Amino acid sequence: MTHAHTSQHSTHVSKDALFQGVVIFVLLAFLTAVEFFIAITNASVLLLSVAALLKVGLVVYYYMHVYKLLEDDDEHDHTSFAWKLATNRLGLWLFLLSDAFVFGGMFVARFNLLGFTRPHLNQELGLVVTSALLVSSFFMNRGETQMALGDRKGFLISTSITFLLGLAFLLGVVFVEWPEAIHEGLTVDGSAAGGIFFLMTGMHAFHVLTGLIFLLVILRNGWLGLYTPERHWAVEAAAVYWHFVDVVWIFYYPALYLIGKAI
Amino acid sequence: MSHASTSSSTGSFNRALLFFLIGTLLGLGLGIGLHAAVSGGFNATYLKDIPSWMLGLLVGTLGFFYGLLGYYGIVRGLVFQVIGTLAGILLVTAIRAAMGLPFFDPAKFGFHEGAWVFGALVGAVSFLAGVGALTDWWKWAKGESTPDHHEDVPGWRKYFGVSLDHKVIGIQYTVTSLLLLSVGGLFALLFRVELAESGLQFLTVLTPDQTAALNLYNSLMSLHGIVMIISILLGIAGVINYLVPLLIGAADMAFPRLNAFSFWVAVPAAVILLGSLGLGGFDTGWTGYAPLATRAPIGIQMFYLGVWVAGWSSILGALNLIATVLRMRARGMTAFRMPILVWASVATSIISLTATQLIGLSFQMSMFERLFGMPFFNVAKGGNPILFQHLFWFYSHPAVYVFVLPGLGVISELLPVFARKPLFGYRWVALSSIGIALVGFLVWAHHMFTSGMNEYLRVPFMYSTLLVAVPTGVKFFSWVATLWKGKIEAPTPMLFVLGGIVVFLLGGLSGPPNATVSTDLHLHDTYFIVGHFHSTMFGGYVFPFFAAIYYWFPKATGKRLDETLGKWHFWLMTPAFFVLTLFMMRVGLLGMRRRIADYDPMLGFDPWHLAMTIAAFLIALSVLVFFYNMVKTLRSPVTETGNVWNSRSPEWQVPSPMPAHNYEKEFEVVGEPYDYGLPGSVYVKM
User: What residues of chain A lie within 8 A of the CB of B356, using their CB?
Assistant: First the structure.
């Protein structure tokens, strides 16, 4: 397999990819609405888990393109772009696997400490910030696809919208949700429930913050025209990382807001 | 290293020693002076100030490297770390002052705990910026490109700055590991002297009063554990970094900058970790259990933070290794033609990559409980101290497989060379490493049989733990069968391999009694556990690590370590270690509690403890012989550039020391790796 062929194989996208992004987003939005509906009716943990896993599956496959890890790659020249791209992808996914263990640990700690009870939180606010993050993933996917199609202006617009939505999520959690929770009596040091709530949302917010910085970097470099449809690994990496942060929230949203009896 | 014998470097070494002395005195004087200024007068007991001595050692170390190198590499890093730490401390102090919160308490190390923690974190990042480990990434973020390879400065200076060459990084790791091994060993000697006789005699001399002596004992015991663990993590990283690219025919690791970062992040981590001794130490042991941890001195924060920072070294190194093995193997090197050491490195990296995050999380949670009052482990506020133990042991048990798997890989790698026979059951041995790693994820709660966790968890964890004996047994079976009817030669590396097998057998056989609930309820927290653990660590890591150094030293330097001194090293260390570990097990069975500074003379343990202390000093002496051997060999003009051990492995088919970019031409794997003694068999075609 030649160099040119491999790189084309790895980055080739058609205009259908933009439409696919829309379809996946509609499915994700529908599943989120279903989750909320389950939560306010029978609050079945099983159904909530199934919905969350379906959402994660959609994001991981269609938005994070996990299948690219398995693409056939015969490249033996370790200085070629194709080889480096495939190796970078592997490295990024290994990092996400590692990072997933931190979030997994907090997830387990939450059930260890609280069991099937949950802190009393503002449901509307939770749904709004969750939606902001979900919509941001849609625009992230759109921006990455536009970059691969050579639409630099579209990339800059979509990525800027992603950034603004991410910022809205971050500010919503830190400057609206946190003060409100503290006002309702869920304080940092008052109970284990407060501790784990602030730990989980805080660690996630920290990842959103790093993702935003990453987005600023690709916006700047994209503005300067440093990326091409064939060579834009940084854009792909930022997108995959951004979706990962969304995946974490797909688990954390039901774990904090929907599962269990409110106390 | 190989150029260390030139006359100009001898000059700078002498200057370095002088600067070390001056720096130590300056730091010590500054510390004692500050103490006197704060308490308004000098008192002779201030000479026993541990914080002042730590400050002295820090400034002395800085002086040493400055004398050696000038303002370059690690010196820049350390200067940045000091400045960064101060900046972080002052920032938090200023914010606290502005908010009207208490920000200075002369009785508790001056600044607030939060200021110290934030300062240490900023210091670690500053170190990395100062040493230059972040430079290329910063350029990438700005959209600039960097050359694939940076050329290293010639000579020994490259070992003290950022290099992207995996061989340089491997040696940096190994030397740092040996340094920390010495520090951790020194701590052990200090508290072993105290234990030589019941009552308190020795540490009371070093400290102003008995409380301080007991606190010092606890801190030394705790730091011995964690410093040795970091030393082991760096040691295996050194062996893996140096060897795996050579064994699989790669020019370097997959991510050379990440590789350099992984090494350099461990240096500020070690500084922070040792800094804990200057901030009151900590009395929890290396496990740092809550709720005791929430009441420990500030030193425990430095312990937590140091481990957390060092954890990134482990995680990112593992990431790099897995990517390297998956992506950079030579033509023809299918999975079942990889050397066993490569299999073992992958197995160890699977654990490091993932489970390390959980010890990081448990330590963060405990740090936050102290800093922000988040009551994760406070039962009165709905917390659960057992949760800490679950998160902690989810890493810290598999961690022992991280420590031993590469060592066991070295044993399997070297045995066929010196028995001149194929490795018995290659595929089984290869898969047994992965098996140990995977089963290792399911055994953590065997540390918690007496903790008060749910009782129904005991039996499943007992069986999963005993299951580890199966893949480990596969390894022993293979080693014995490989030795069977072999033409055994026993130069120093082989001696350490054989010693490792026997010691690890002792460690392995003393394991099941701890894994079995009924016996563990008696053995828990006794010296029996200490003996068992030291046997597994010596057998699985220390012996194979020394074997690897003796074996690959000619590859790295083109010079062979002295055989006579090597045999002295082995024959001093091995019997002394048996005395140490067997006596530990004996007093443990008779009821000696671990982690205590004193014991009842009526128990009759005094002579046993005295013997253990003497044995510990003999082990230290043997390591000094080893260090002397290294220095002597490096200064000697005699070179050994050929295939010293008559090995089939690719790295020995080219002259030593290895050229900067490894193999001039790619080799191809055409046969089985360990077919020693089979006529006509070929492994690699160069």
Answer: 98
